[in-house]
Design goal:
This protein has 318 residues and is of the alpha/beta class. It folds into two domains: 3-200, inorganic pyrophosphatase (n-terminal core) (Alpha-Beta Complex); 214-317, Diaminopimelate Epimerase, Chain A, domain 1, CATH 3.10.310. Helices cover 41% and strands 18% of the residues. It has a six-stranded mixed β-sheet, sandwiched between helices. β10 and β11 form a beta hairpin. The longest helix has 17 residues, at 145-161. The chain is globular, with a radius of gyration of 19 Å. 48% of the residues are buried.
Length: 318
């Protein structure tokens, strides 16, 4: 029997995995990747008696491979907050899916393990831009102000590190982050002491965000803004963090950050407004992407479709 843990390489995926394994240890083969690597289940070859646990990876994008694993005799347990599409009826699959806008995979796992090592899910909420929820959760843990700031920073910088076209674009691979997280055990604050990971990410996150806020919008209306950014390493790194920053600083604002890819297409990160957190995933789905109500993405939008995207974006959000 072989166990496989499949999870997104962002804060939500890595921290959800860690919180689950703290409560239910398992010697598993890890399968992870950059945030936009949506086909992770396709990397798994499992059979009779094997267990595949999937966290924070779109079921809709992986349904065919999930069916393949079930047909081969494997057991699948699925934790996620994205629109799952059509679920599979099979005795060997268990779903833990909640698509409410303010729910992350980390919160689903937190509930599943009855709140054990809950601070990891608080950092996840910060990383996934559920700022009010994260702050309320942190305050309920009787943390001091410095500890809350540190939790927020940990969540933000691990999420920041997940954005890139390939693993080579990242400062640290998701496997390296997962290894550092595992070394912390139940104490999340030990993450700041794992090699040079935290200071490196915090320094570059701050520098890239400073560059991002100086950019001029491509399009702006009452409640919606679009930025188009050049194909540079820092723009790919910061697009998700910049999106989250924009909607956090104006809770009625929806945004899209479009970064030019090397092939001339655009990679787009979309956020619904915090006060009306609906529509991002469905909008992106119409252009070959996906996501959830509050946040979505498109990997390759033709430059010739940019104006159509702008029109649809403003219909949904403006």
């Amino acid at each position: 029997m072989t166990n496989y843990d499949v999870f997104n390489g962002d804060t939500d995926g890595i921290f959800a995995w860690h919180q689950l394994r703290l409560a239910h240890p398992s010697d598993a083969t890890l399968v992870t990747g950059v945030k936009r690597d949506v086909g992770l289940v396709g990397r798994v070859e499992a059979g009779e008696g094997d267990l595949v646990t999937v966290m924070d990876v779109s079921h809709a994008k992986n349904r065919k491979d999930v069916q393949r694993l079930l047909d081969s005799g494997a057991t699948v347990e699925y934790f996620d907050h994205h629109d799952p599409g059509e679920l599979i009826e099979h005795p060997n699959i268990t779903y833990h899916i909640n698509t409410e806008p303010n729910v992350s995979t980390g919160l689903i796992v937190n509930s599943h393990v009855n709140g054990k090592n809950r601070l990891w899910s608080v950092a996840t909420a910060f990383g996934d831009n559920h700022m009010d929820l994260a702050m309320n959760m942190a305050k309920s843990e009787n943390l001091n102000e410095d500890q809350i700031i540190l939790l927020k920073q940990i969540g933000l910088v691990v999420n920041y590190n997940s954005y890139g076209q390939t693993v080579e674009d990242l400062f640290f691979s998701p496997e390296e982050i997962a290894k550092a997280v595992k070394a912390c055990g139940s104490d999340i604050f030990r993450f700041t002491e794992q090699s040079n990971i935290f200071p490196t990410l915090l320094e570059n996150f701050s520098a890239d965000m400073s560059s991002a806020v100086c950019q001029e919008p491509y399009s702006i209306s009452d409640n919606a803004v679009i930025y188009t950014l050049p194909n540079e390493a820092w723009t790919h790194r910061v697009m998700g963090s910049f999106s989250n920053h924009l909607v956090s600083t104006n809770k009625d604002l929806a945004c899209a950050i479009a970064v030019l890819n090397s092939d001339g297409t655009y990679r787009i990160s979309v956020r619904s407004s915090i006060n009306n957190p609906y529509g991002a995933g469905n909008l992106c789905k119409n252009f070959g992407g996906g996501g959830r109500e509050k946040a979505g993405g498109i990997n390759n939008l033709s430059a010739s479709d940019m104006n159509t995207f702008k029109e649809e974006f403003e219909k949904v959000f403006a």
